[in-house]
Design goal:
The protein is of the alpha+beta class. It contains 31 helices and 33 strands. 33% of the residues lie in helices and 17% in strands.
């Protein structure tokens, strides 16, 4: 920013400066707060407000839940918040009742880790962070309805998180009805004999514990022994999505191992098809939809049973290429598969290939060593196409059900328990990974799909597998079935029917999606509203006992271990608080002693339903009033699934948060608590504000503000440093706070700059030096309305000339479309063009131009717009003033220039009306004297017209 000299300040005491901006912004923020300017009335309840406003069409606009970091905001954080605020302000001015607010997702690991380091309770630090962040957001002039804000750590909020959990726990998914139903209805089916128990006994003959076990097999929330990602360095288990590609924790970068632990799970897999199908109802970026489709991973194939000698059950595989069953020459189980221990013999079978044993004396030793090796790798690493294939023979053989051949059974890390059945039939001739494994372990291959590329039918001569769906089957005859000569599709149908007739398989659908791991061994999270009796049976607490509050403890850190020690198990912080864990309760059958759950819910729990709490935040009687939910989120024309009208946030939440929230919402819909089928109708992913990172010779980041650019390079303390574009953050020493920019230029300038940097969905680099451009726009706007010397309003009451009037309406027309499309950068460009026109014209700006101009910029720069509106003589805020409407006749150019070409050369330029038709334009072009002369009597073969700007004549 250029220095303002004392002489300039004296000559222009009413210039728009940072000091004046700070005064204006503070006053209007106080005004909005005092008058409840942004309060959105509900149609009923304690937030009913102005009935006239409630009668308007609604618009529910949301940002993704922010976490209140102790570092505060940098200028990259508010990008989405400013964008939704601009859009919300425009929607208010176009006659909508707009719900726009912001709460805080405040449980989770960062606050807990900080508390462990400092000894300060996580609630203390989290609430302090919320105060800081709230002040920073207020300074940006965000128009939030403060009455609706909350934090997930508020007991009044997580009471309802626990209430929703209990609804999920007390529900089961009815496949026939394709919806969740109360667990009591399932009990009635068992009691009435409509449904039989797994062992055929009558329901009345089962013990309490046995009944609980049966129901747990159906509940949407259940406890199970599950293979989990155990992180000793954090002392907790992690969801797959919280583990990096190199097998380490996203938080803290500790090693993660596979372990079997007792955990709470959510049966999200029951909703796989609905989560897939309903994506078609949503206005989301196609890339995000595709990520969800890939994560759910629906595939059609067949289940096939392979008998194993000495085992009481077969190895069951899921395959999408059941047509290649005759080519299965070995099998692979995931190292964690529960059948492994049952099939491992005491000694290696006679003639076992040495490369299969891994150098171990017995199968048991080989399996144990390999399991330990595999446990150190993440699922992502295990699925990667590594050059070296690893595995070990179990010592057992299975029987191929179509060929009758014995096939060796291996364990290998490229097979996961998280997909299919945790077992595969390996067809090395026609699967790339199986081919590589077979080569490494010298296993046989059999061609059963005839290659179409001339390589022949001997896999021993191939360089890689032949994997194709456009080929015919060969070498596939036996056991009363023949696939030879059939195409892949027909062969699949024949073999699937054959398997089903013999009861050793069936056609089925499989999903990549796994049930959601819902336990964390942490303190700072929502307690589970359940207790366990002496038999380990889970009992849901009644709603009257909610919330189950977190106890105050002295030690809130989970027990951590040597990060590399996989042979450890979790010890949650709550387990050390015996006074809280052991409790005497009367749950309907007298006072008994119970134990509370010592795990807590993951931080995702609170963000699975927060959009509903925004609707009815003070309701202590129910989750949300049905009429209020129907008003703000119910299905309507163009939004068949209902949901939030606009949801803005980062694309990094494509799977985790968005998939979890959709699942919870669908359960609530099935149980009749909400009318909307989906939580978020329209999703928009904003880009990222990046910044240059400067590193010294050691690779250490140095403070960006202290780096000098000279001689074509960058220097820190006179030493050369490298520069790369990356994230903005405190650790990279390149963060710029919004407070700094607000202090130097004002919040309106910051808002304009962030919106003008480029398309909202594209990442862009921050450049503090470029901020001044938007600051000058505001200064010119100010000068067009206010005299810098006297402070008087300078607008005139004269009628504007036609050129200026057309410039105004063209701007209105363009900005209106840009606002609806979230194209704020081009909206700012059009406003700048209009403002520059007024500056160049000189003289007082007509009121008929100045007032619409102020209204145009109001969503983008609300403080200066309010101030100018007030100085123009208006006594009320402009927040609900009607947005200017363009006159179509004035929004068009009076005339446009049409280029006439002959043989590709320009021969004439015609001024024509923008509405001219192709026929009229062709006639005018052919009659133009310059065109006639250029033609020189030549015959016209073809005329190509692109009205109103081009005519191309072919001779």
């Amino acid at each position: 920013m250029s220095e303002i000299t004392p002489a300039a300040e004296t000559a222009a005491p009413h210039r728009y400066t940072a000091d004046l901006a700070a005064d204006i912004e503070g006053r209007w923020q106080d005004f909005w707060q005092a008058h409840g300017t942004y309060e959105a009335p509900n149609p009923s309840g304690d937030l009913d407000g102005d009935p006239e406003t409630a009668a308007r069409p609604k618009k529910f606009i949301m940002d993704m839940f922010p976490y209140p970091s102790g570092a505060g905001l940098h200028v990259g954080h508010p990008l989405g918040y400013i964008a939704t605020d601009v859009y919300a302000r425009h929607q208010r001015m176009t006659g909508h009742n707009v719900l726009h607010t912001l709460g805080f997702d405040a449980f989770g690991l960062p606050a807990e880790q900080y508390a462990v380091q400092t000894g300060t309770h996580p609630r203390v630090t989290t609430e302090a962070n919320i105060v800081t962040m709230t002040a920073q957001l207020r300074r940006l002039g965000l128009g939030h309805d403060k009455r609706r804000s909350f934090a997930t750590i508020d007991p009044g909020y997580y009471r309802w998180t626990q209430w929703i959990f209990l609804r999920i726990f007390n529900s089961w998914y009815d496949e026939e009805a394709a919806r969740a139903r109360p667990i009591t209805e399932l009990v009635e089916q068992y009691e009435g004999g409509v449904r039989t128990t797994p062992d055929g006994r009558a329901w009345a003959e089962l013990t309490v514990a046995e009944r609980a076990g049966v129901l747990d097999g159906h509940r949407l929330a259940y406890v199970a022994q599950s293979p989990v990602n155990w992180c000793p360095g954090l002392g907790t288990v992690l969801a797959n999505e919280e583990v990096t590609a190199d097998g380490r924790s996203e938080r803290g970068n500790f090693p993660v191992f596979k372990a079997n632990l007792r955990q709470w799970m959510m049966r999200i897999t029951a909703y796989a098809d609905r989560l897939l199908d309903d994506l078609d109802l949503l206005d989301w970026p196609e890339a995000i939809k595709q990520q969800q489709r890939n994560w759910i991973g629906r595939s059609e194939g067949a289940r096939v049973d392979f008998p194993v000698a000495g085992a009481d059950r077969p190895i069951t595989v899921f395959t999408t290429r059941q047509d290649t069953l005759f080519g299965a020459t070995y099998m692979v189980l995931a190292p964690e598969h529960d059948l492994v221990d049952a099939i491992v013999p005491d000694a290696w079978p006679e003639g076992t290939h040495q490369v299969w044993t891994g150098g171990h004396a017995t199968p048991a030793e080989a399996v144990a060593a390999y399991r330990k090796f595999a446990a150190s790798k993440s699922d992502v690493e295990r699925q990667a196409d590594a050059k070296e294939k690893t595995g070990v023979f179990t010592g057992a053989f299975a029987v191929n059900p179509v060929s009758g051949e014995n096939v060796p059974v291996f364990i290998a890390d490229y097979v996961l328990m998280g997909y299919g059945t945790g077992a595969i039939m390996a067809v090395p001739a026609h699967d790339v990974r199986d081919f590589a494994f077979a080569r490494a372990f010298e296993l046989p291959m059999r061609c059963v799909v005839a290659p179409t590329d001339g390589r022949g039918t001997d896999p021993a001569q191939w360089d890689d597998a032949f994997a194709s769906y456009d080929a015919t089957l060969v070498n596939s005859v036996g056991s009363g079935v023949s696939l030879d000569g059939l195409g892949v599709t027909d062969a699949k149908a024949v073999i699937t029917a054959w398997l089903a007739d013999r009861g050793i398989g069936e056609g089925t659908v499989n999903y990549r999606l796994r049930d959601w791991l819902f336990s964390r061994q942490r303190y700072w999270g929502e307690p589970f509203p359940v207790v366990y009796d002496e038999d380990g049976v889970v009992h849901a607490l009644p709603d009257s006992m909610l919330p189950v509050a977190l106890p105050e403890v002295d030690d809130y850190s989970p027990r951590t271990f040597d990060p590399d020690d996989a042979d450890t198990s979790p010890e949650p912080p709550l387990s050390r608080n015996e006074d809280w864990v052991t409790v005497e309760l009367d749950l309907g059958d007298g006072v008994r002693t119970y134990r509370r759950e010592t795990n807590t819910m993951p931080n995702w729990a609170g963000s699975c339903w927060y959009e509903l709490r925004y609707l009815d935040p003070h309701n202590s009687e129910r989750l949300v009033d049905p009429a209020i939910e129907q008003y703000w989120m119910g299905p309507r024309e163009g939004q068949p699934a209902g949901g939030v009208d606009l949801y803005v946030g980062g694309a990094e939440h494509a799977v985790l948060h968005l998939l979890y929230a959709r699942f919870w919402h669908k359960v609530l819909h099935d149980l009749g608590h909400v009318s909307s089928v989906e939580p978020f109708h329209r999703l928009f992913n904003q880009g990222m504000i990046q910044a240059f990172v400067y590193r010294d010779a050691r690779g250490i980041a140095v403070p960006a503000v202290e780096v000098e650019e000279r001689d074509g390079g960058w220097f820190y303390q006179d030493q050369p440093v490298s520069r790369v574009l990356g994230k903005m953050g405190k650790s990279l020493k390149n963060a710029v706070t919004p407070d700094e920019i607000c202090a130097e230029y004002g919040a309106d300038t910051l808002r304009l700059y962030e919106m003008a940097m480029g398309p909202l969905d594209v990442s862009r680099p921050w450049d503090t030096r470029a901020v001044v451009g938007q600051y000058r726009l505001l200064q010119r706007l100010w000068r067009n309305v206010v005299d810098e010397a006297t402070g008087a309003v300078t607008v005139s009451e004269a009628e504007p000339d036609e050129t200026t009037l057309r410039a105004l309406h063209k701007a209105i027309d363009g900005v209106t479309g840009d606002m609806a499309g979230l194209r704020f950068n081009t909206a700012i460009a059009k406003i700048t063009e209009l403002n520059n026109h007024l500056t160049k014209t000189g003289g007082p700006v007509p009121r008929a131009i100045a007032e619409p101009l102020v209204l145009l910029i109001a969503p983008l720069a609300p403080h200066i717009a309010e101030e100018l509106w007030s100085r123009l003589g208006h006594t009320a805020s402009l927040v609900h003033e009607p947005f200017p409407v363009a006159d179509p006749a004035l929004a068009q150019d009076e005339a446009v220039v049409c280029v006439v070409q002959i043989k590709g050369k320009v021969r004439a330029r015609l001024e024509v009306p923008p509405t001219i038709s192709d026929t009229e334009l062709e006639a005018q072009a052919l009659a133009d004297p310059a065109v006639v002369a250029a033609l020189g009597g030549a015959a016209v073969r073809k005329v190509i017209v692109r009205a109103p700007k081009l005519v191309n004549i072919v001779v």
